[in-house]
Amino acid sequence: MARMLEAVELAGHDVRMEMYIFKEGGPGDDFRHALLAAARRGVRVRLLLDAIGSGGLPERYWDSLAAAGGEVRWFHPIGGGLAMVRSHRKMLACDGSVAFVTGFNIAPEYEGDGVEVGWRDAGVRIEGGPAGMVEALFDEQFERASRGHRGPVRLLRRRPDGSGRCHHGGEIEVLPVTPGRGESALTKSLRADIARAAAGRRRVVWVTPYFVPPAWFRKALRRAARAGADVTVVVPMHSDVGIAQRAARHVYGGLQRSGVRIMEYRPQMLHAKVWCVGEALYVGTSNLDPRSLHLNYEVMVRCTGAGITGRAWADVEDIMARSAEVPRLGWGARSWWQRARDQLAFWILYRIDPWLTGWLAGRWLRHRGVMPGTTGPSDAP
Questions:
Q1: Fewer Cβ in 10 A, N or C end of the chain?
Q2: Are 251 and 213 in contact (CB under 8 A)?
């Protein structure tokens, strides 16, 4: 977070920031001060906040930034037809040369080392061409927020090309996720990397705070473990979303029977999204659940360079060293009530939430005269 703040303070002509949760106090006030100072020295400052995630901010919190020429927009205000579709991205881009994609929001709980105090999280700093891709994603979303998100048909069907552009920059790729069914650029990339890791019997570690994976993903992990790959999933022991933790525990048994290790991080809340899949590293905003993979706007950065993947593996090894493995036999000995509760939580998040979001969006589309499954007016990124 300190490096992001420094990038804003050093920006010379342009700052773009998109955040799901932005809270008053602590780092939030520091960023507001830095953004205000940038605007006053002539930097173009644009800020996009999710209307639900950042809805707790005081009404006049951004008045000084707006008065200094900064632009603040809200994504999908409450009461709109697409209020359940959120922008879950956390990105910062400055001067067309440097960008950050993170799992952490701008809030007090993210301060600290994630061991003694604060949530444990991760992010990536990128430069050059991929940083420009982050800027392009921001510009599309900023425009989308200003015009009320016209024609959001991807809630019902993604484009055949995977619904998302990505920057093929050698060691760095930016993989956006947009609402809709079907494969995104991210899921296509994941399928290929898991298959390569399985074929090469490589090590695979998934660090994720919310783990409600789709059937194809669970099948791919089981297949990789049976092929001889060392597959581990690390989730939080202390979760801020109880229903998500119970839903995750519903799938433990099936994965463990195939040889997948399940570990729970003990010291603090684990909020990092770091996926080490053979030679590939993924860092960003997406959880492994239906909401992140199909309902929200997300972005992940895929890296293959030895330098950054080496640092990520060191961090992952530290996370695992502070985690406890869930014993297979002990887990299977749970009471029927615990198993039923976990199964209900899983189906609420895996089936009911996506269905309800799609149903409400479909009603809104029909009300606006946009038929589901058709091509809407110029909303595709």
A1: C
A2: yes
Which two tokens mark 149?
A: 């998100």
Q: Which superfamily is assigned to 2-146 in CATH?
A: Endonuclease Chain A (3.30.870.10)
Give the residue from 297, 302, 312, 107 showing the smallest Cα distance to 193: 302
In Å, how far are 19, 209, 249, 271 from 103, measured between CA atoms? 10, 10, 22, 7
Quote the DSSP letter at residue 294: I
Total Cβ atoms within 10 A of residue 270? 28
- SS3 of 224-288: the string is HHHCCCEEEEEEECCCCCHHHHHHHHHCHHHHHHCCCEEEEECCCCECCCEEEECCEEEEECCCE
Every domain range in the chain assigned CATH 3.30.870.10: 2-146, 161-332
- For residue 93, give the 3-state DSSP assignment: strand
Tell me how far apart the alpha carbons of residues 367 and 101 are, in angstroms, rounded to a whole number.
36
Between strands 123-127 and 98-102, the pairing is antiparallel
Model confidence pTM above 0.70 = yes
Maximum CA extent, the chain: 63
Residue pLDDT, tens place only, 63-116: 999 999 999 999 987 665 566 788 999 999 999 999 999 999 999 999 999 999
